[in-house]
Amino acid sequence: MSVRRHNGQVVEDRFWGTEPINSLASAIPWRTFRWYKGQKHYSGTYWSATMRDHVIYESRLELSRLLFADFDLSVRGIVAQPFLLKTVLEGKVRRHIPDYLLLTGRVPVVVDVKPLHRLSKPEVAFTFGWTRRAVESRGWKYEVRSEPPAVELENIRFLAGYRRDWLFSPEVLEELRGAELDGVSLGQAACCLPDRPEPQVRSAIHHLLWTQSLVTDLDRPLSPSHVLRWAA
Questions:
Q1: 17 HSE (CA, 13 A, CB side)
Q2: How far is the CA of 173 from the CAs of 39, 179, 213, 227, in angstroms?
Q3: Which of 100, 140, 153, 194 is deepest in the core (most CB within 10 A)?
Q4: CA angle, 160 as apex, 159 and 165 as ends, to 5°?
């Protein structure tokens, strides 16, 4: 495997099985962005609340996986294009750059993102097959993500607009944490602090939903009728 350091140095041909996770956690993306007229994918950067920094993506589908990772409380670190894996199979040198490395409270998760209709292509299945074997040989988890449930994605995309914690009044958040919101609808909760402007209270509730201090059903479009619960 090869990895690119923050100082731009490329460290090549390291043994995959023993490369420390700290080395990979501090890697910078292997590839650089290329923009050109007529390109099919939309590349960009996303400010991650988990990383408190920008993380790159090379397609809208990758951005969707990035949103889910940022919303996942078990994820403590997100590394885009963390390394280049190399192996020799069937007499040929094979190379692959996974899309993300997720550092969790359990085991690291290596993620590849690919549209569902492309997973059946032989070359894609072959590459993901040997990558899975390599990743799982370390006791790590490997996952391939395609299109997520549309409603859940839109709800998380909406809540991501409230992910920047410095935009919210600590006093309002503290008052909400002391309020009786368990079993209260989202519409009613916005009026639970009569001495505070309703838009300020509503946005703070959305922030608590993003941080999952409050939880609700995200399998249907968010509405004032959604019932709130305090997380266990």
A1: 3
A2: 43, 10, 11, 19
A3: 100
A4: 100
Is the distance from CB of 194 to CB of 218 less than 8 angstroms? no
Identity of the amino acid at 159? L
pTM: 0.93
- The single residue listed with the structure tokens 């838009």 is 199
Of 12-26, 75-89, 97-111, 152-166, the one with minimum mean pLDDT is 12-26
Categorize the per-residue pLDDT at 11 as very low, low, confident or very high, splitting at 50, 70 and 90.
Answer: confident
Contact 70, 49 (CB under 8 A): yes
- For residue 137, CA distances in Å to 16, 18, 132 come to 10, 11, 8
From CA 229, how far away is CA 223, in angstroms rounded? 15
